[in-house]
Design brief:
By secondary structure, the protein is mainly α. The chain has 17 helices and no strands. The two termini are 31 Å apart. The relative contact order is 0.13.
C-alpha cells in the first residue's frame, strides 16, 4: 500500500515539474512579445532609425511565431515533443544573446526572427504537453494556470522592460532571457517524458508547410496594411489576392497529399471548429481593448503613461485570477457552460466599454475593464480544453500550434479592424462636430470618444457570435469526458 502511495506521489510531483517546464517556455515566449515594446523609443534613438524600420523588431518576431507554430506542432506529432521543446529553448536562448549583442538595426531584426523561431517551437508544444501530462479531468485546471502564466507575462513584460532599459540598458531586455532559457532547457531535458512517436515513417508535408507560411505571412502583412492609412491601395489589393491564392493552394495541396501538414478532417468535428472560431473571435475582441483603450486614456482623458498603465493593469490581473478558477469550474461543470459564461461576461463588458465618454472617471474605466479580464479567464481554459478534447492524442501538436496561431491571428485582425473602424468613425464624428461649430481639443476628445463607442459596439457584436458558437458546440461535456 505504501509503495502505491509513493508511486502516486512521485507521479504527482513529476506532473507539476512538467508543468513548470511548460510554464517557463510559455512565459518567455509571450514575455518577449511585450518586454520589447517599452524599449522601442530607446532602440529608435540608439540605432538612429525611424518607425518604419523599428516596427520590424516586433513584427518579425510575431511573423515567425504565427507562421511556424502549426508547422512545429506537426513536427512534434511526428518526431516527439520533448526534443522540439528543448530545441525551442536552445534557439530562443542563443538568439536572445545575439539580439543583445546586435550592432545594427538589421542584425537585431534578423536575430529577432531566430528568436521567433525558438518561441514558435516552445508555444507550439505547450498545450500539447498539457494534454499529454494531465488527465482529462484536470486538463482545464492546468490550462487555467497556464493562462495565468500568460497574463503574468503581459503584466511583468512592460515593468521589467522599462526597469531594465532605464537602469541597465536595452541589451538587458534580451540577456534576461538567457538564464531563464538555460534553466528551462535543463528542466525540460530532465523531467519531460520521452515519448517516441510511432508515425516517423510519415513524410513531412514540405509543400503544405511552405504555402501555409506564405499564406499566414501575407495575411499578417495585410492586417498591418489595413491598420494604417499610409499603405497604398495597390499593396492592400495585392496582399489580399496573395492571401486568397495561397489559402486556396494550401487547401488544394492538403486534400491531395498523403501525409498532410494539417489534417482537414479535424474541422469536420463541429466541437473543434466551433472552439477554434470562438478563440479567433475572442482574441479579436480583446485586441480592440488593448489597442484602443490606451489611446482613449491619452487623447480623451488626457492621462500620462504611468497612470494609463495603472488603469490597464486590472485586465491581466483579473485574467490571472479568473483563469485557474475557470479551469476548475470547467472540470466540474463542463467546458461549454463555463466558456459560454465567460463569453457572455465579455459581451456585457464590451457594452460597458462602449459607454466610455469624456467625463468617465478613472474608477469608471477600471470597473468597465475588470469584467473583460474575468470573462476571458473563464472562457479561455475550457475553450482550449474543448479543442484538445475534440482530436486524438496524435493530433495534439497540430492543435497546440493552432491555439497559439489563433491567438496571434485574432489579435492582429482585431487591431487592424479596430484601427480602421475607429479612424472612419472619428473622421465622421469630427465632421459633424465642426459643422456644429465645435473645434479644437474639445472636438478631438468628443470625436475620439464617439469612435470608441462605435468600435466597442462592433466588438460586442463579434462577442455575440462567440456566445452562440460556444453554445452550439454540442452537449455540455465535462473535461473528464472530452
Amino acid at each position: 500500500m505504501q509503495v502505491k502511495l509513493l508511486s502516486k506521489d512521485n507521479t504527482n510531483v513529476r506532473k507539476w515539474l512538467n508543468f513548470t517546464a511548460i510554464a517557463l517556455g510559455t512565459f518567455v515566449g509571450y514575455l518577449d512579445s511585450s518586454i520589447v515594446n517599452i524599449a522601442l523609443p530607446t532602440l529608435t534613438r540608439y540605432f538612429q532609425t525611424d518607425l518604419n524600420h523599428i516596427k520590424w523588431v516586433v513584427t518579425s518576431y510575431l511573423l515567425m511565431i504565427t507562421g511556424l507554430v502549426i508547422i512545429f506542432g506537426r513536427l512534434a506529432d511526428m518526431y516527439g515533443r520533448k526534443r522540439l521543446y528543448i530545441f525551442g529553448f536552445v534557439v530562443f536562448t542563443l538568439s536572445s544573446a545575439l539580439c543583445g549583442a546586435s550592432t545594427t538595426i538589421w542584425s537585431l531584426i534578423v536575430f529577432r526572427c531566430f528568436q521567433g523561431i525558438g518561441a514558435a517551437a516552445l508555444l507550439a508544444n505547450g498545450a500539447a504537453l498539457i494534454g499529454e501530462t494531465f488527465p482529462s479531468k484536470e486538463r482545464s485546471k492546468a490550462f487555467g494556470m497556464l493562462a495565468s502564466v500568460l497574463a503574468f507575462a503581459a503584466i511583468t513584460g512592460p515593468l521589467i522592460g522599462g526597469f531594465l532599459t532605464d537602469r541597465i540598458g536595452w541589451p538587458s531586455i534580451f540577456y534576461v532571457n538567457v538564464p531563464i532559457g538555460i534553466v528551462g532547457a535543463i528542466l525540460a531535458a530532465k523531467v519531460l517524458p520521452s515519448r517516441e512517436q510511432a508515425r516517423t515513417s510519415e513524410r513531412f508535408d514540405l509543400a503544405g508547410a511552405s504555402i501555409l507560411f506564405a499564406c499566414l505571412t501575407s495575411f499578417l502583412l495585410l492586417t498591418s496594411a489595413l491598420s494604417k492609412s499610409d499603405w497604398p491601395l495597390s499593396t492592400v489589393v495585392l496582399l489580399t489576392l496573395a492571401t486568397i491564392i495561397f489559402a486556396g493552394a494550401f487547401l488544394r495541396v492538403e486534400n491531395r497529399v498523403e501525409h498532410a501538414l494539417l489534417d482537414l478532417q479535424i474541422f469536420r468535428e463541429w466541437a473543434f471548429s466551433a472552439a477554434a472560431l470562438s478563440s479567433f473571435l475572442a482574441y479579436w475582441s480583446i485586441a480592440s481593448i488593448s489597442f484602443l483603450v490606451p489611446f482613449y486614456l491619452d487623447r480623451v482623458l488626457l492621462l500620462d503613461p504611468t497612470k494609463s498603465g495603472a488603469l490597464l493593469a486590472p485586465v491581466p490581473l483579473a485574467l490571472a485570477i479568473a483563469a485557474p478558477l475557470g479551469g476548475r469550474l470547467a472540470d466540474r461543470f463542463g467546458v461549454r457552460a463555463i466558456s459560454t459564461t465567460g463569453a457572455v461576461i465579455n459581451f456585457f463588458g464590451l457594452l460597458a466599454l462602449s459607454t466610455l465618454s469624456t467625463t468617465t472617471s478613472s474608477l469608471g474605466v477600471i470597473l468597465r475593464l475588470v469584467p473583460f479580464g474575468i470573462g476571458m479567464g473563464l472562457f479561455q481554459p475550457p475553450n482550449n480544453t474543448a479543442m484538445m478534447g475534440a482530436v486524438p492524442p496524435n493530433r495534439y501538436g497540430i492543435v497546440s500550434g493552432m491555439i497559439a496561431a489563433l491567438k496571434n491571428l485574432g489579435s492582429m485582425t482585431g487591431v487592424a479592424i479596430t484601427s480602421l473602424v475607429s479612424t472612419i468613425a472619428q473622421v465622421n464624428a469630427m465632421a459633424q462636430l465642426q459643422a456644429g461649430g465645435i473645434t479644437g481639443q474639445v472636438a478631438e476628445r468628443q470625436s475620439f470618444a464617439s469612435a470608441v463607442t462605435m468600435t466597442f459596439l462592433l466588438s460586442a457584436v463579434i462577442c455575440v457570435v462567440v456566445v452562440f458558437m460556444s453554445l452550439a458546440r454540442g452537449k455540455n461535456m465535462k473535461a473528464s469526458e472530452t
